[in-house]
């Protein structure tokens, strides 16, 4: 899939928050839903910075999914194979990522 909001695969830390990385993963998925492991896979495949080094970023992804109200946990359909629930973006939060704007927003002082 075309991932136009993503910068080229550069080795440096991407200019995106963890919630933006999650939103990108969900936006690019069929049905706009992914499991936790699919979100990890998306991030690692699209941002080399997260492929190497510390696994702490995975803890941050889990933390954001659990505490950010924009992300909703959706159970698997009955009889659907696999492990874990799906995650989706709450429709009320779609505007935060309008037009592929996933970059960090500067805080106003």
How would you describe what is shown here?
By secondary structure, this protein is α+β, with helices and mostly antiparallel strands. It has a single domain (18-94), classed as Arc Repressor Mutant, subunit A, CATH 1.10.10.10. 30% of the residues lie in helices and 10% in strands. It contains 3 helices and 3 strands. Strands 1-3-2 form a 3-stranded antiparallel β-sheet. Helix 1 (18-27) packs across helix 2 (36-46). The longest helix has 12 residues, at 56-67. It is globular and about 40 Å long. The protein starts with 17 loop residues before the first helix and ends in a 20-residue tail after the last strand. Residues 1-5 have low confidence and may be disordered.
List the main descriptive attributes of the protein structure presented here.
alpha+beta; Arc Repressor Mutant, subunit A; 109 residues; 3-stranded antiparallel β-sheet; single chain; DNA-binding transcription factor activity, RNA polymerase II-specific; 3 helices; globular; transcription regulation
Short overview:
This is FXI1E protein. It is found in: Nucleus. With 109 residues, the protein is α+β, with helices and mostly antiparallel strands.
Architecture blueprint of SSEs:
Elements: H1 18-27, E1 33-35, H2 36-46, H3 56-67, E2 71-74, E3 86-89
Antiparallel strand pairs: 1-3, 2-3
GO molecular function: DNA-binding transcription factor activity, RNA polymerase II-specific; RNA polymerase II cis-regulatory region sequence-specific DNA binding
Pfam families: Forkhead
Domain Fork-head: 13-107
């Amino acid at each position: 899939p075309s991932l136009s909001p993503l910068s080229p695969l550069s080795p440096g830390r991407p200019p995106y928050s963890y919630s933006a990385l999650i939103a990108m993963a969900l936006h690019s998925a069929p049905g706009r839903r992914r499991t936790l492991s699919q979100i990890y896979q998306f991030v690692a495949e699209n941002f080399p910075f997260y492929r190497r080094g510390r696994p702490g970023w995975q803890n941050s992804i889990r933390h954001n999914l659990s505490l950010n109200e924009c992300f909703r946990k959706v159970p698997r359909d009955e009889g659907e194979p696999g492990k874990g629930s799906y995650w989706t973006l709450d429709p009320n939060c779609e505007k935060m990522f309008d037009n592929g704007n996933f970059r960090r927003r500067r805080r106003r002082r």
